[in-house]
Design brief:
By secondary structure, the protein is of the alpha+beta class. Helix content is about 30%, strand content about 30%. The chain folds into 2 domains: about 130 residues, 3-Layer(aba) Sandwich (Creatine Amidinohydrolase, Chain A, domain 1), CATH 3.40.350; about 150 residues, Creatinase/methionine aminopeptidase superfamily (Creatine Amidinohydrolase).
């Protein structure tokens, strides 16, 4: 199930974290003399909405509105029956039914007399919503905010990475000779019980790139590529059961802390959470290794 059970542990991620992030966004709005910041969110483009409010949708889309001088508002296309749950796991109290969130945004701007607003990553807003905003009487301008994760963010990523790393290595040690479907089931049970909202498991016996389980028995050189979501924070870990020393032949990098959880990158970007995976080959057997890193001012560090 996509994003199984979503909850909010305030001892793990306190309300202070969101208050600090919202204050930073409002400061930026003040510097640009904008009354409102609009953040688009859906099931895949969820990092930014989650960062400011802890809102992580099961499906559908929404607009998170961050006024410069008022409390945030969620224009939500989900049914009102889930609003009590949303309030219980986010900092949001004002949630408004909005089958057409762009229209709802324009109506609020009209009520408030806002003629110019900021949109976080305007060029990445879905085409239909973008067109509706352009057709309205409000000028929408693109806003970029500093991408550097704060200490709360880093702590959550570290926990998710440690969870994925430890669990995968323990299961890998007893995986040879096991059917790939059964191995995937073991990982699902372990990580879902540990609080993972989502999990993607890809495997290979060395003849292909990692892929979904296909009914094969795992051999001594099998590899696993694991993507795990914990409290909305995605990490990726890859390991091989092989005891042979890896000789890297190919490198692949993804940015996990941008608007989307997975964003291919051709460089080790600074101030980002990165998934770095490399492929090695011995006697035409492909093996895969990788982990999640923090690329900061002091270079690349394992989370």
């Amino acid at each position: 199930m996509k994003r199984g059970w979503i909850t909010w542990d305030r001892t793990e991620l306190p309300r202070e974290a969101f208050e600090t992030r919202l204050a930073s966004a409002r400061k930026h709005l003040g510097e640009r003399d904008l009354p409102l910041l609009v953040v688009y969110t859906d099931i895949w483009k969820s990092n930014q909405g989650r960062h400011f409010s802890n809102y992580m949708p099961y499906w559908n889309r929404a607009l998170l509105l961050i006024p410069r001088e008022e409390s945030p508002v969620l224009l939500c296309a989900l049914s009102p029956r889930v609003y009590p749950w949303i309030k219980s796991v986010t900092v949001l109290n004002d949630i408004r039914p909005s089958p057409n969130p762009a229209q709802g945004l324009l109506e609020i701007c009209s009520e408030k007399g806002w003629e110019k607003i900021g949109v976080l990553g305007l060029g990445q807003v879905p085409y239909d919503l973008h067109q509706q905003m352009r057709a309205g009487a409000v000028e929408a301008v693109d806003v970029s905010l500093p991408a550097e994760p704060d200490e709360w963010e880093l702590s959550m990523y570290r926990h998710a990475a440690a969870l994925a790393r430890t669990g995968l290595e323990e299961e890998l040690a007893v995986g040879v000779g096991v059917l790939d479907h059964e191995f995937t089931g073991r990982l699902e049970r372990r990580f879902r019980r540990a609080g993972a909202e989502d999990l993607v498991v890809l495997l290979t016996n060395g003849q292909t790139a990692p892929r979904p389980a296909a009914g094969e028995t795992l051999g001594e050189d099998f590899s696993v590529s694991l993507a795990l979501e914990y409290r909305g924070h995605w990490v990726k870990v890859a390991r091989s059961a092989s005891t042979r020393d890896p000789v890297p032949v190919r490198l692949h990098v993804e940015n996990l802390s941008g608007p989307y959880p997975y964003e291919p990158s051709d460089r080790l970007e600074t101030q980002s959470i990165l998934a770095v995976r490399f492929e090695s080959q011995t006697e035409r057997v492909r093996r895969f290794h990788g982990d999640t890193y923090w690329s900061g001012s002091e270079g690349l560090k394992l989370l």
